[in-house]
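Hi support team,

I've been running sequence recovery on a batch of backbones for a student project. Most finish fine, but this one hangs at about 90% for roughly twenty minutes before it completes. I'm not sure whether the input is malformed or the queue is just slow. I've pasted the structure tokens below so you can try to reproduce it. Let me know if you need the job ID as well.

Thanks,
M.K.
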């Protein structure tokens, strides 16, 4: 303090203190400008975020948003990125839309809350349906199938020839026929409290399968009027199954499936 008073008591000391103050002010100003430029630069840095591509209805699961391509990846200036913005598509899994999300809106943790629901409706969309198909242990591979497996569904029937009028000919003999009904079906679940599943009351167990509405109707008809067989598909590189019918003629005598098909009244 005394040294400062001595400096101020002389002209040279006053000038020296003024110069020091000016230098200090300059340093402070330069530091502020540097930090300001850095903050402006940082706020303009592009950040990858997920944005709704189309309307996402309240209650839509993150899995559906991902699989149905309801979002797009965009770059936004950091200053415009909302709190909790989702930047990784993997984060969508296990979440559900807490409110309607409109096209162009950023997907955030607040808009897509963590879901505690195990409803099957969160696993399907559009024309997809979750359908229970009753099968017995042997035909349905009960005890061997697991949720997430993919299967082909075959239907075995005893059929009679159809006349040109589209009506079954009652005088024609009954003939056993096997046909692919629905290929590549995902097993959503095997509803059970034990490994044997829930009985349908007729010695059968339910498989909960994901299909389109038309495929579900075909599978339901097959289960109601024939015998349903399940074939497990490989996890990867599964070849397409044959759509041809199998009958005694095709199996034992090598008769082309199309001839048997037409003999039963088929037109295609």
């Amino acid at each position: 303090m005394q040294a400062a008073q001595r400096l101020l008591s002389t002209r040279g000391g006053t000038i020296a203190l003024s110069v020091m103050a000016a230098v200090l002010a300059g340093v402070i100003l330069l530091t502020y400008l540097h930090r300001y430029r850095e903050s402006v630069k940082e706020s303009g840095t592009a950040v990858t975020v997920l944005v709704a591509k189309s309307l996402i209805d309240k209650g839509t699961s993150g899995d559906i948003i991902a699989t149905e391509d309801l979002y797009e990846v965009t770059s936004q200036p950091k200053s415009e990125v909302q709190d909790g913005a989702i930047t990784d598509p993997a984060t969508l899994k296990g979440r559900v839309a807490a409110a309607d999300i409109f096209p162009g809106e950023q997907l955030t943790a607040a808009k897509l809350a963590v879901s505690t629901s195990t409803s099957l409706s969160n696993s399907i969309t559009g024309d997809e349906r979750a359908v229970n198909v009753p099968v017995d242990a042997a035909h349905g591979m009960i005890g061997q199938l697991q949720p997430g497996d993919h299967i082909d569904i075959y239907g075995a029937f005893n059929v009679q020839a159809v006349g040109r009028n589209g009506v079954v000919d009652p005088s024609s003999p009954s003939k056993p026929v096997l046909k692919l009904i629905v290929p590549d079906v995902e097993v959503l679940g095997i509803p059970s409290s034990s490994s044997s599943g829930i009985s349908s009351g007729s010695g059968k167990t339910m498989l909960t399968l994901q299909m389109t509405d038309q495929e579900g109707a075909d599978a339901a008809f097959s289960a109601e009027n024939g015998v349903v067989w399940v074939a497990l598909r490989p996890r990867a590189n599964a070849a397409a199954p044959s759509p041809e019918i199998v009958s005694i003629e095709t199996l034992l005598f090598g008769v082309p499936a199309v001839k048997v098909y037409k003999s039963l009244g088929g037109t295609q």
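--
Follow-up from support: It reproduced on our side and the slowdown came from queue contention, not your input. Residues 127-263 form one domain. No action needed from you.
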